[in-house]
Write a structure and sequence with these properties.
69% of the residues lie in helices and 0% in strands. The chain is an all-alpha fold and 154 residues long.
């Protein structure tokens, strides 16, 4: 299995930092100011999904802070699986509760449902693909020569 070329460490750290800042900003905007109540198409049912949506955003913050410290491919894959799984739970809950009201006759209900389906299906695919890569990487590491684990002489 060929290893993918990763961006340099500085580029990755920059990306993790931006992700943390964006996610913290989302938490502030949704929970403090102006708050989700300021969004005209969100209903009072939003309170039913706020916990899992916040958990999804917090998972992203925690993962990206961890990646700032260390981000070997296996660790990054595990973090991606966890954050995607929490995001999947949030998308499913949003589908169940559907705390949106775009007005009578608005096609936006359909658009929102389609976007939620894309998020759910994409998350499942992402989890499966990342899990497969994680397993393939582990198998590769176990079956190939490494400087720290020399091949026995014959």
């Amino acid at each position: 299995m060929a290893r993918e070329k990763r961006p340099g460490r500085a580029s990755r750290r920059f990306g993790y930092t931006v992700a943390v800042l964006v996610n913290v900003a989302i938490l502030v905007v949704v929970n403090r100011w102006p708050g989700w109540e300021a969004v005209p198409f969100l209903t009072d049912d939003t309170e039913q999904v706020l916990g899992i949506v916040n958990a999804s955003v917090v998972a992203g913050v925690v993962a990206n802070l961890a990646f700032l410290v260390a981000d070997p491919p296996w660790f990054k894959a595990v973090g991606d699986i966890v954050t995607t799984a929490v995001g999947l739970a949030a998308a499913v809950r949003l589908w169940q509760v559907f705390p949106f009201d775009f007005g009578a006759g608005a096609a936006w209900d359909t658009v929102a449902r389609i976007l939620l389906v894309i998020a759910i299906v994409g998350s499942v695919i992402g989890i499966l693909v990342t899990t497969g890569r994680l397993i393939a990487g582990a198998v590769h590491d176990l079956t190939h020569d490494h400087p720290h684990h020399p091949t026995p002489t014959r």
